Amino acid sequence: MHVRFASKATAGDVIPRHMPKSVISRIGSSTLKIGNMDRSPRNVAPDLWVTERPFKLPYVRVEVGTRMTIIRLAKGGLLVHSPVKLDAELRRSIDALGETRAIIAPNKLHHLFVQDYIAAYPKARVYAAPGLQQKRPDLRFDDILSDTPQVEWRGQVEQHLFRGASPLNEVVFFHPATRTLILTDLAFNIPMETARKSPLFYMLWDVGHFGPHRFVRLRGIRDWEAARNSVERILRWDFDRIILSHGDVLDRGGREHFAGAFAFLRK
Fold first, then answer.
1. Contact predicate 236/1, CB 8 Å
2. In total, how many domains does the chain have?
3. Among 177, 171, 155, 154, which residue's Cα sits nearest to residue 44?
4. Each residue of 235-256: pLDDT tens digit?
5. Spatial CA neighbour of 75 closest among 174, 189, 6, 154
6. Domain of 143?
7. Is residue 79 part of a domain?
8. pLDDT reported for residue 196
9. Which of 19, 181, 239, 240 is the most exposed place for a label (fewest CB within 10 A)?
10. Strand 180-182 and strand 171-175: pairing?
């Protein structure tokens, strides 16, 4: 099935050399409690949790937060997506949900806390986005992510390597049981009031709305045709909720927002 875009129109290597590393954006209903984040995983749907932690963008020093997603698989094991800093309290909370079986670094930028989880869960398998193994040879990775789901979650979670954005090489995930799309840096959803705390951040990044920020659009996505094909493939999934690493969760209307945010690729 060919899916068309709706009309309308993160961080590291996706930006000019004189700019910092990052990614941002907004429109949502599940509020990111910046500065007062829950220490334990927050249940957003059956067998689906998120954990939020503070995170300031380099240089502009804006608090945008970061988010980890946890999926409990059919046999009770946990899939941990985009790990946040692990402390004793968080580890106890995770362990109460089940045994951590899979640790995912979903793009080339979200790898800072992977070692915490490798050390805490040595029996878990660790998966990396393409290119991250070369960037972080100090980390143990058991396999490289692609369009084909790994055995641990095959039939329960779907995935797609977003094409045309090699600085990210982000693998997008879809949890059919809860109609949830899971993004990392391809789109952000930072509240407008947060974005405006830094005029430099607000003006240069073009934030305060859901979607890819200016540097992802201009420097991160380098092959528009390949990216457009990836967006169309993602839109074949029947998702409603979108969980992002930075900014507010979209509890509903996610598919329409996603199509609109990437409509610029049609130009």
1. yes
2. 1
3. 177
4. 999 999 999 999 999 999 999 9
5. 154
6. 42-266
7. yes
8. 74
9. 240
10. antiparallel
